[in-house]
Amino acid sequence: MAFKWLSDFHQEMEKPPDYAEKTLAAYKLGMKAGGSIAGVRIQVDERCCQAAQALPAGAVYHPDEAPRLPLAECPLGRKCRCVYRPVMGYEGEQGGRGAGERRPGVAGGKGAEGEG
Ligand SMILES: [Zn+2]
How far is the CA of 112 from the centre of ligand 1 (A)? Predict the structure, then answer.
């Protein structure tokens, strides 16, 4: 007896035709509302299309500029497993803006009680 369909089921879910529009619109609302959403990134499933894997890893898009999922080149079409993920504000700080300030190390670090 094969129950393979059980585990396959969720992976076979199709995206609704308006997946991209609805999802991106929701993120945009989240940004406008002064929420913590800073943008959107695309989470690529490693078994999904080459087209998605060719996207720059970790790229953060404005919802208006994000590539529409499913990607036009995706052979899986609406079964494409790539999804949008919101990027929270605090996640987007990895691109430094040139602030290279360095503090000298704190002098004298040992405050621990010695064991006796
Ligand atoms: Zn895909």
Answer: 54
